[in-house]
Amino acid sequence: QVQLVESGGGLVQAGGSLRLSCVASGSIFRIAAVGWHRQAPGKQRELVAGFTSGGSTNYADSVKGRFTISRDNAKNTVYLQMNSLEPEDTAVYYCAVGRSIWIPDVWGQGTQVTVSS
Fold this sequence. Notes:
Blueprint: E1 4-7, E2 10-13, E3 18-24, E4 33-39, E5 46-51, E6 57-59, E7 67-72, E8 77-82, E9 91-98, E10 106-107, E11 111-116
Parallel strand pairs: 2-11
Antiparallel strand pairs: 1-3, 3-8, 4-5, 4-9, 5-6, 7-8, 9-10, 9-11
């Protein structure tokens, strides 16, 4: 089974930027849907951004214009560039792949993002 490893999280001030990376153990991103999800304390996990299996992108309304998902298939890596971060973006961010970006089959371990005001 494919394994996903996220990195790039950390503590940043409001208005700052971070770039998250997700490396897969195989060339899964070429054929599967892949997304970044997040879960804040006391809240449900939500899809932040993703590539559908057809290659189109999808963003949550709350991050449109601030976050950008991209990928490097040669490196089996998907990125999430996060700009203009807000305290409300504080959460554990997960990379996930599967048949659908809304119903993934495989999850990474998550990386913590904390935005201070």
